Amino acid sequence: MRAFEGQFSDNKPIQRNKDEKRRLLRELEETLASLKAHASPSLRESLKTRIQTLKTELAGR
């Protein structure tokens, strides 16, 4: 079965507005703060990277 135009499986980045980015940033920061001590370092690093990316995107606008 083929995908139609605009379907989520088009492998395109999700476009978020400023409010959605702020909400996502808050959720990611809460997730990072609530991680247990035994959480993998790679997970922590990926969360920190995503948080930093969102902060720079929000500061640039």
From TrEMBL:
Residues 1-20 are annotated as: Disordered. It comes from the Bacteria. This is DUF465 domain-containing protein. It comes from Roseomonas elaeocarpi.
